[in-house]
Design a protein that fits this description.
Shape: globular
Largest sheet: 5 strands, mixed, barrel
Number of domains: 1
Number of strands: 14
Strand content: 15-25%
Distance between the termini: 7 Å
Structural class: alpha+beta
Radius of gyration: 25 Å
Oligomer: single chain
Order of helices and strands: HEEEEEEEEEEHHEEHHHHHEEH
Number of helices: 9
Length: 355
C-alpha cells in the first residue's frame, strides 16, 4: 500500500474512533435516563410526597412562555441550531440558542409547578431544514422577530398594540447573531410545547425550600447577569443587610399588581391624584391572577437538587424507556466501531497494511 492510501486509511480510522466515541457517549446518556425513569414509579400529582419522584402528564404554561427562535412557536424549552458552511478556521461557523422557563405539568389528579434550572431536557426535533442551492430558505422557517418571552394570557388591547407596532428587525439579538452567517445554512430546532406529554424525574419539595425561586424559574439560557459571581455576591450582601426587598410589592410598587399596565389591575395602584383612575378587575380576575402568580410556601414543586438531578423528557414513561434502550444499543455499536477503528489505525501505523 502506498503512502497516500495509508494516509486515507489513518484518516478514516480516526474518524471512526471519534464517531464511535460520540455514539457511545450518547448511548450512555440514554442509558442513565432509562435507568432513572425505569427505576422510579410514577406518582399521582395529588399524592406526591417530598423526595425523589416521577410524574407524567401534559405541559401547561405558567405565567410566561418562550418564543422559539426558528419557528416563533410558544414553548417552555427550545434548542435552536443554525449551521454555516463558511470555510474558515477562525470564524464561528454556527449559532446555538437554548432556553427554558418554568411551567406546570398536569395529570388526571392535579397540576404541579416545575422549576427547570439545571434540568436535562430530552426534547423532540420539531424543525429541520437547510437552504437550497439557489439560496431559498426551507419551508416552515419563521425566525423570531420580537422578544423571546410572551405572556400566557395576553390582554386584548396589548395584543392589538403589539400587532400594530412596526418592529425593527435588526434590533433583535437573533437577527444580529444570524446576520453574520454566510452561504448555505442548516436549521434544527428541538422544543417542548404546551400540551406535550412529558415524564419528569426530580425532587419534590416545598416552594419555601427553593433558595432562589426566580432564578430556578429560568433554566437554560437565563440572564447571564444572574450567574455572575460578583452580582450574586452583591445580591447576597444586600439581602443580608436588609436593603433588598423580598416583598414584590415593596420592591416593584404598582408593577407588582397583576394586570397593571396591561389590562385591569386587581388592586388599586398608587398613582397621581390628577391621573385618570384605572378600572379595577373583578373577583374573577383577582382569583385568576392569584392562581397564576402566587404559590403558597407549603406547596410542593418539582426542581433539581444536588442529590436529585432533574430530567424532563418528552413522552410517557414507556416511550422514554424505549428511546433510552435504542440509544444504548446504538451506543454499544459505537463502541464496537471505535474499537475496530482503533485497531485498524494501530495496524496501519505499524505498517501492517503496507506489507
Amino acid at each position: 500500500m502506498d503512502g497516500s492510501s495509508s494516509s486515507w486509511v489513518a484518516a478514516l480510522a480516526s474518524l471512526g474512533v471519534v464517531a464511535g466515541l460520540i455514539l457511545l457517549a450518547r448511548g450512555l446518556t440514554g442509558y442513565r435516563s432509562l435507568v432513572r425513569v425505569a427505576d422510579t414509579a410514577t406518582s399521582p400529582i395529588s399524592a406526591l410526597a417530598a423526595g425523589e419522584v416521577r410524574v407524567s402528564g401534559l405541559v401547561e404554561p405558567a405565567e410566561l412562555t418562550l418564543v422559539s427562535l426558528l419557528q416563533s412557536t410558544p414553548c417552555v424549552y427550545y434548542r435552536s441550531t443554525v449551521g454555516d458552511d463558511r470555510d474558515s478556521k477562525t470564524a464561528d461557523t454556527g449559532f446555538t440558542e437554548e432556553r427554558s422557563i418554568g411551567f406546570r405539568v398536569r395529570d388526571a389528579s392535579g397540576s404541579l409547578r416545575v422549576f427547570p434550572r439545571d434540568a436535562r431536557f430530552d426534547a423532540p426535533v420539531r424543525f429541520e431544514g437547510e437552504t437550497s442551492l439557489m439560496g431559498d430558505q426551507p419551508s416552515g422557517l419563521d425566525i423570531r422577530q420580537e422578544g423571546s418571552t410572551r405572556l400566557t394570557e395576553t390582554d386584548r388591547e396589548a395584543a392589538v398594540l403589539a400587532l400594530l407596532t412596526v418592529q425593527d428587525r435588526d434590533s433583535w439579538t437573533p437577527w444580529r447573531d444570524l446576520r453574520g452567517l454566510r452561504g448555505r445554512r442548516s436549521y434544527r430546532e428541538m422544543r417542548l410545547e404546551p400540551g406535550d406529554p412529558v415524564t419528569i424525574v426530580g425532587r419534590a419539595l416545598p416552594f419555601s425550600d427553593l433558595a432562589d425561586p426566580s432564578g430556578a424559574d429560568n433554566g437554560i439560557g437565563s440572564d447571564p447577569m444572574l450567574d455572575d459571581p460578583e452580582v450574586a455576591a452583591d445580591i447576597a450582601a444586600a439581602r443580608s443587610s436588609g436593603t433588598l426587598a423580598d416583598d414584590p410589592s415593596a420592591a416593584w410598587g404598582n408593577a407588582a399588581i397583576p394586570g397593571f399596565g396591561i389590562g385591569r389591575p386587581v388592586a388599586a395602584p398608587k398613582i397621581d391624584p390628577g391621573a385618570t383612575q384605572m378600572p379595577l378587575g373583578d373577583a374573577t380576575d383577582a382569583a385568576r391572577a392569584k392562581q397564576t402568580f402566587e404559590i403558597a410556601p407549603e406547596t410542593l414543586v418539582l426542581a433539581a437538587s444536588t442529590e436529585v438531578p432533574l430530567l424532563i423528557a418528552h413522552g410517557v414513561p414507556g416511550a422514554v424507556v424505549q428511546r433510552g434502550q435504542t440509544r444504548f444499543a446504538v451506543g454499544l455499536l459505537g463502541a464496537v466501531l471505535a474499537i475496530a477503528s482503533a485497531m485498524i489505525f494501530a495496524v496501519n501505523l505499524g505498517g501492517g497494511f503496507a506489507k
